């Protein structure tokens, strides 16, 4: 299994509060991603990173920001959580050999409930 | 966003039966991936395909990268109870873009 951990694994918070989710990898992979998974929508890309301090938006980036100050850590921040951000959040990594750079490995997920 | 057409959406089978599911796209892909997701867990990579026509096995699982590069299938032989879960296909269409397009998933249920 790819060495990916996410913290926290579960979180309950209130509307309007800031929330930060952490993804940590031990694989030294270049690319890291944040997805959310909701019934009826499948996996949707929020933000991704292609290197330290290099990030870009995905298809559902509004209300989210990210930071990557080290290769191994990718943080997702909800500046002011809303109920629509209740979801399961998955981190993924990729960047093995050149032939396999599109192959993504997923973390265990963080279940977030915004009340 | 763009999604792959994955079918069937759900399957109800008897233990021991073989399973087949597929994904199609209107675009050409360079990589096809198959994942399985158990309840409360993250998707786990089952098989990765990198060349058109490639046929790859992982135990009882076999997947193929279609010759047209617009489709892929996954077969599971002699299903067992632990095969229950949701199976996702994913494709990458642009070399080096590192973004995946996902299917909506096939939910597999097995009657013992």
Overview of the structural elements:
The complex is a heterodimer of chains A (115) and B (112). Chain A is mainly beta and 115 residues long. Helix content of chain A is 0%, strand content 57%. In chain A, strands 2, 4, 5, 6, 9, 10 and 11 form a seven-stranded mixed β-sheet that branches. A four-stranded antiparallel β-sheet of chain A has the order 1-3-8-7, with no helix packed on it. The mean pLDDT of chain A is 93. By secondary structure, chain B is an all-beta fold. In chain B, 0% of the residues lie in helices and 52% in strands. In chain B, a hairpin with a 5-residue loop joins strand 7 and strand 8 (71-76). Chain B is globular, with a radius of gyration of 13 Å. At the A-B interface, strand 5 and strand 10 of A face strand 4, strand 5 and strand 9 of B.
Could you write a compact summary of the structure shown?
Chain A has strands at residues 4-7, 10-13, 19-25, 31-38, 42-51, 54-57, 64-70, 73-78, 87-94, 105-106, 110-114. By secondary structure, chain A is mostly beta strands.
Sum up the structure in keywords.
A: 115 residues, mainly beta, 7-stranded mixed β-sheet, 4-stranded antiparallel β-sheet, 11 strands, globular, B: 112 residues, 6-stranded mixed β-sheet, 5-stranded antiparallel β-sheet
Largest interface: A-B, 24 and 26 residues
Helical content band of chain B: under 10%
End-to-end distance of chain A, in Å?
34 Å
Nearest-integer average pLDDT of chain B: 92
Uncertain ranges of chain A: none
Task: Indicate the radius of gyration of chain B in whole angstroms.
Answer: 13 Å
Per DSSP, what share of the residues of chain B sits in E-state strands of 2 or more residues?
over 45%
Number of strands of chain A: 11
Integer average pLDDT of chain A: 93
């Amino acid at each position: 299994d790819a060495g990916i951990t996410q913290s926290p694994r579960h979180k309950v918070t209130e509307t309007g509060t800031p929330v930060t989710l952490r993804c940590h990898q031990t694989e030294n992979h270049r690319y890291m991603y944040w997805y959310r998974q909701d019934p009826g929508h499948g996996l949707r890309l929020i933000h991704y990173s292609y290197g330290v301090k290099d990030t870009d938006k995905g298809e559902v980036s509004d209300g989210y920001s990210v930071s990557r100050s080290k290769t191994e850590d990718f943080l997702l921040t909800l500046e002011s959580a809303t109920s629509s951000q209740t979801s399961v959040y998955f981190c993924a990594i990729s960047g093995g050999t050149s032939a396999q750079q599109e192959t993504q490995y997923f973390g265990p997920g963080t279940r977030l409930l915004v009340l | 966003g763009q999604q792959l057409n994955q079918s069937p959406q759900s399957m109800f089978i008897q233990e021991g039966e073989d399973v087949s599911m597929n994904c199609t796209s209107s675009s050409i892909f360079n990589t096809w991936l198959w994942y399985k997701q158990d309840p409360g867990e993250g998707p786990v990579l089952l098989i990765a395909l990198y060349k058109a026509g490639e046929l790859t096995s992982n135990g009882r699982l076999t997947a193929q990268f279609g010759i047209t590069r617009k489709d892929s299938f996954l077969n599971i032989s002699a299903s067992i109870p632990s095969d229950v879960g949701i199976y996702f296909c994913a494709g990458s269409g642009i070399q080096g873009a590192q973004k995946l397009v996902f299917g909506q998933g096939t939910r597999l249920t097995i009657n013992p």
